[in-house]
Design goal:
The protein is mostly beta strands. The protein has two domains: 31 residues, no CATH class; 418 residues, 3 Solenoid (Pectate Lyase C-like). Helices cover 8% and strands 45% of the residues. The chain has four helices and 29 strands. It has a 27-stranded parallel beta sheet that branches. α1 runs parallel beside α2. The structure holds 2-acetamido-2-deoxy-beta-D-glucopyranose (5 copies). One 2-acetamido-2-deoxy-beta-D-glucopyranose binds next to β10.
Length: 453
Amino acid sequence: MRAPRVVLALVLAAALGSVRGDVRRLRDQAPPGLRPHSVTITEFGAVGDGNTLNTVAFQNAVFYVRSFADKGGAQLYVPKGRWLTGSFNLTSHLTLYLEKGAVIIGAKDSSQWPIVEPLPSYGQGLDLPGPRHHSLINGYNLTDVVITGNNGVIDGQGSVWWDLLRSHELNYSRPHLVEFLYSEEIVISNLTFLNSPAWSIHPVYCSDVKVHNVTIQTSLDAPLTAGIVPDSCSKVCIEDSTISVSHEAISLKSGWDKYGISFGRSTSDIHISRVDLQSSSGAALAFGSEMSGGISDIHANHLRIHDSYKGISFKTSPGRGGYIKVVVISDVQMDDVHVGIEFTGNCSTHPDDHFDPSELPVISQITLQNMVGTNISVAGVLSGIDSDPFTAICLSNVNFSMSDSAPSSSWSCSNVSGYSKTVFPEPCTELCDPSSSSSICFSLSSYSALAVA
Ligand SMILES: *[C@@H]1O[C@H](CO)[C@@H](O)[C@H](O)[C@H]1NC(C)=O
Ligand SMILES: *[C@@H]1O[C@H](CO)[C@@H](O)[C@H](O)[C@H]1NC(C)=O
Ligand SMILES: *[C@@H]1O[C@H](CO)[C@@H](O)[C@H](O)[C@H]1NC(C)=O
Ligand SMILES: *[C@@H]1O[C@H](CO)[C@@H](O)[C@H](O)[C@H]1NC(C)=O
Ligand SMILES: *[C@@H]1O[C@H](CO)[C@@H](O)[C@H](O)[C@H]1NC(C)=O
């Protein structure tokens, strides 16, 4: 392990709090940034040759940057190169900046991804009971963190993990690429995220998160990879991004069964706009199925969804409790999608057998409007739960042109009710409830005035 003296000196200096003069001013550095101070990862012994393991360099650099917390924070600059690393943690008031040509690469060796506790709102890992691997880049209890750059890349080398999952050789649940817990004022922008072992960007128990101008890709035949997963978060904004993954491009969640119910933290006030989404085996935009803390006040507009198994999907199950309500999705272009719209109350995966089937979810006040589809095989499959129907579903101005192989009945509905206006193909009778009216439909402009019961 390389540990140049300068690093030891810097870390020692930081620990002693005598840091002035050791750090160049940002304005003398090439990259523009928001912080008054900047350090470069090479100052901490990192080598960008794609082979040298730089985990300790990243950890030491972040430790050093902590000393600038009360001085406006600092930028950690990652120059062009291939920077192999295991998991590391971020700190508050940090900007991680990846220059053009900079690639942070996740180590293939699973021992570089330590084991951490499962999330309290899930009770276990995603893939397996018990603890899980720590993500590549982590934030815990932070404020004011920016991960950005000039289209640098963060590559998780996920195929190692996908193979372990496929062959049932995982010992612990897969890690994500970037995860923030209990954090606020997070910005992630101007970067590309490749081949996450599981999810690419996972803010959980966070607020004020902005994801802007990112590209996210995983291999389309990877098992269960997701793009951005706001999970028990409020005030999240996702804009101007392109996501192409195997399972769910954007997925809104809030905890699993009794763990999510007792943790009780909802996902709310989420804005999604101008995104291009592809999901080869799941839904481009998904809600749930883990939604036990509740999901509400979601605005998504100007979505392009293409070459996907499902377009927009709302998923839940008896045992979840919670709710998905007050959702407005508008201005959607959908091309080459198997199932355009799905509502299902039958996602029967549970963290254990002790779920309470009488904990029934509420799915209500969901408006889908101004949607155009081409080459759609099935317009919609809407299946609520027996004795727990999904209500106040509004479809307005939806025009799907069906693929040649489409079945004659393009919609199938059960245990749902709602209203539809100007929908082609003709929707099922459950969405033509004579007792409901357009008043159940929200629009973006009238939305805030209409906190409809
Ligand atoms: C990173 O943070 C986790 C808690 O989120 C902690 O357990 C771990 O020790 C930290 N690692 C380092 C290297 O600081
Ligand atoms: C979270 O951060 C706050 C202030 O930054 C600190 O007071 C608190 O101890 C931290 N909590 C944990 C669990 O680290
Ligand atoms: C998006 O990020 C790239 C670098 O990754 C940058 O060149 C481009 O200007 C950004 N676009 C916007 C609209 O911010
Ligand atoms: C899983 O555990 C076994 C037994 O301890 C070990 O041989 C194997 O390397 C572990 N696999 C991973 C991916 O860590
Ligand atoms: C992303 O890139 C755009 C265009 O270069 C720039 O205006 C914006 O400030 C960048 N975002 C961040 C957080 O650096």
